[in-house]
Amino acid sequence: MGKRVVAWMGLWLVIVTPVMLPATAAERPPAFPRLRHIDAVLAARTPQKPARLRILLSDDAPPFIYRNAGGALTGFSVAVMRRICADNRIRCRFIVRPWDHLERELAIGRGDVILSPLRMTRARFERLTFTRPYWKALGGFARRVNGGVKELNGAALAGRRVGMVRGSLHARWLTRHLPHSRLVSFKSFDAATKALKSGGIDALFGDWLQLAFYVQGKRAAGCCVMMRGFVPSRLFAYNHVAIATRADAASLADWLDQRLDAMQADGTLLRLARRFLPAGVAARTPGAGGNAKKDKAK
User: Fold this and answer.
1) pLDDT tens string 48-105
2) Which range of residues forms the domain containing residue 203?
3) Same domain as 210, residue 146
4) Do 73 and 210 lie in a common domain?
5) What does the pLDDT look like over 219-228, one tens digit per residue?
6) Using CA atoms, how far apart are residues 171 and 45, in angstroms rounded to an integer?
7) Residue 244 in contact with residue 106, Cβ under 8 Å?
8) Residue 15 maps to a domain
């Protein structure tokens, strides 16, 4: 694994620390996760701007890449790349291919980057160069609106029934870090959310993005809220979202990282994220009613 990769994998753990806030903060919408850190060292470099970009992607990775009702490509990742192309006046072409063909197409020169969110394994780091993530996979907790769990810390969760999906990375994290909670294993995310909604468990731990979509969706029917705070772990780093280039195209990855840093600095990344990703749901102040208050994505 190259030094470039090791550097950002270590740094993100410092930047994205868990946010442990008291119950009084629960009346405010949960903060949106910080999307990426800005690399001041990289800003001093001058990687060559590409004249064009051929962007390989599959169209089946919502909310990052998918087709809208009219059949057009859309999603958070698509919006990010379109903004990079437009702001830098680059000729860009989106090339849709089946998921399992993307790496081969890149290797034989039929594309310059892969936009689809590839699982960032050690094997892939040997044959690809990734930008730093522009979306980090974080753990999160959801609870019932009227449930007894208010704070996100080990003491508040001690003795509580905390759900997890059997065999998942999140189950591994819970087993290591919450030994005093009553961990309840479910065969699927659907089964776990049904138990949360019915009161069978006090909280559910899983992927923050997946849980945030659930609590804002129709199936939840206002039953549940996201607890404030995000849980980073090396266990989840494989699922970060980044742009991939060939292993010999580190300069292109640097150029893309500079563009992504600029979008982080001026708020563009956050604005695009709020168009496609949930910002979470916060409970009303105690005594103000049992319905959930939604922080709608802008």
Assistant:
1) 999 999 999 999 999 999 999 999 999 999 999 999 999 999 999 999 999 999 999 9
2) 139-234
3) yes
4) no
5) 999 999 998 8
6) 41
7) yes
8) no
* DSSP conformation letters of the chain: --HHHHHHHHHHHHHS------GGGGGSPPPPPP-----HHHHT--PPPPSEEEEEE-S-BTTTBEE-TTS-EESHHHHHHHHHHHHTT-EEEEEE--GGGHHHHHHTTS-SEE-S-----HHHHHHEEEPPPSB---EEEEEETT-S--S-SHHHHTT-EEEEETTSHHHHHHHHH-TTSEEEEESSHHHHHHHHHHTSSSEEEEEHHHHHHHHHSTTTTT-EEEPS--B--GGGGGG-B--EEETT-HHHHHHHHHHHHHHHHTTHHHHHHHHHS---EEEPPTTS-SSEEE----
Which whole-number Å values give the CA distances from 157 to 3, 173, 174, 179, 241, in the listed order?
38, 14, 11, 10, 30
Listed in sequence order, the residues at least 6 apart from 273 whose beta carbon sits closer than 8 Å to its beta carbon are 32, 35, 76, 135
Per-residue model confidence (pLDDT) at position 31: 62
Are the CB atoms for 290 and 147 separated by under 8 Å? no
253 in any annotated domain: yes
Number of domains present in the structure of the chain: 2
**174 Cβ neighbours under 8 A, 6+ residues apart:** 162, 164, 181, 183, 205
- Dihedral sign for Cα 4, 249, 277, 119, please: negative
Are 35 and 92 a contacting pair, CB within 8 Å? no
CB neighbour class for 110 (10 Å; exposed up to 12, middle 13-18, buried from 19): middle
Domain limit, last residue, from 178, 206, 234? 234
Q: What is the distance between the alpha carbons of residues 3 and 126, in angstroms, rounded to a whole number? A: 12
Domain CATH for 224: 3.40.190.10
Signed CA dihedral, 104, 110, 114, 115: sign only: negative
Pair 115, 188 in one domain = no
